[in-house]
Amino acid sequence: MPGNSASLGHLRGFSGGGCRHSLLTIVWTVVGFLLVTHLISLYTRKDNNIDDQQHQPPSHHLQLLNPSALHELVRVEEEILRLPPPRKRSPRTGKRRSRKPIPLAEEFLDDKSPIRHLFFPDIRTASFGPTKDMGDDAFHYSPGKIWLDTEGNPIQAHGGGILHDDKSNIYYWYGEYKDGPTYHAHKKGPARVDIIGVGCYSSKDLWTWKNEGIVLGAEDTNKTHDLHKSNVLERPKVIYNDKTGKYVMWMHIDDANYTKASVGVAISDNPTGPFQYLYSKRPHGFDSRDMTVFKDDDGVAYLFYSSEVNSVLHIGPLTEDYLDVTPVMKTVMVGQHREAPALFKHESTYYMITSWCTGWAPNEALAHAAESIMGPWEKLGNPCVGGNKVFRLTTFFAQSTYVFPLPGVPGAFIFMADRWNPADLRDSRYVWLPLVVGGPADQPLESSFGFPMWSRVSIYWHSKWHLP
């Protein structure tokens, strides 16, 4: 561990042999105690996992014992992007030192960058989907390229999430339908598209997506309505209530200046809608911006939302019908300024991916873990693997929106993210990548001394990949 190496390096600076020997003895005694404690906890957890696996079907055992399905997913792929040469200089500046290349992150935000095609490839040369003649590349994901639906149109489901409908065994992808012009409501306002609605797509293989239409539409005439086109609807998520038989949608509702800071709720009898909009509110009396909902194994659902001007995250259970929050609420990640929460669960441990608050600009993701969904939540560090350093520090130029289990591969998930294009939001891209839970955590706990029992979270970059 880095801490132990630093301690030993410091000890080498002492000149007294007896003092050095005593300190080394103390250090290694502490290290030995921590190592034995950690091993005991791991074996205890292993025994619990074996007991759990005895209740799993035989196919589950085979998948756990055979790692070949994960081999291709965890292959580390590097990405080299060539920066353009410095801009031409006038003769007057010929004797001055040449300009340094523009940083890659700044090239991404510049809609006139000569390498913009690397971040947002043209639809004529870089799109994928069931209507394309892709040959051996069929059923491959190409993060950052244009994803086409079964009609050959770019998918419009930004900031979205996935619902697997157990009754029909169909996946539904809900997201912001942004197929409109991008503009600024005022000079200092953020880039925006008028509300069109929530788009819905269906699939049985997670690659071939059929457009089911707009399942929750905008309000064109009533300017006081939450869904009036001049307002903001972001990050819609749908969960199914087993008791009521209803599909419940939660979303971020705001005005053009982002001062309303509320959640909205809609309901439907069918996954393809239409959804009936019910109301908006500030949950627990606090402002709410980026948000998500998570349904646990016991059927209890939770709302996670950035609050207190995005300085903290709030967590609270929903009512039994999923139509409101209960009075119970916990504040976590105080002062960390995290948003875009994406929740998932593996072997009774809860995990979350978040981003920093930088508007439409990409930034470094963090993974978090907790033994209780209400916290405390611990940081696990940057989960991104591969690409290059800039890719890893910008979450592959994307922002988290959802994580869901990869079918048939325990411990593996699909990480969903958006590569936002503030110059033309309808042309924002999807970055779907394999996420794997496994390996030792790479940094100690914040709330106590030592390393956690849970595993590291890794999101692997691939310019092209497919389901195993």
Task: Give your account of this protein's structure.
Pfam families: Glyco_hydro_43 (PF04616). Belongs to the glycosyl hydrolase 43 family. The chain crosses the membrane at residues 21-43. Keywords: Glycosidase, Hydrolase, Membrane, Transmembrane, Transmembrane helix. One of its GO terms (molecular function) is beta-galactosidase activity. With 468 residues, the protein is α+β, with helices and mostly antiparallel strands. The protein has one domain: 5 Propeller (Tachylectin-2, Chain A), CATH 2.115.10. The chain has 7 helices and 27 strands. The protein has a 5-stranded mixed sheet with strand order 22-26-25-24-23. It has a 4-stranded antiparallel sheet with strand order 4-5-8-9, with no helix packed on it. Strands 10-11-12-13 form a 4-stranded antiparallel sheet, with no helix packed on it. Strand 6 (183-184) and strand 7 form a beta hairpin. Helix 1 packs antiparallel against helix 2. The longest helix is centred in the first third of the chain and has 37 residues, at 17-53. It is globular. The two termini are 34 Å apart. The model is unreliable at 1-66 and 89-98 (pLDDT under 50).
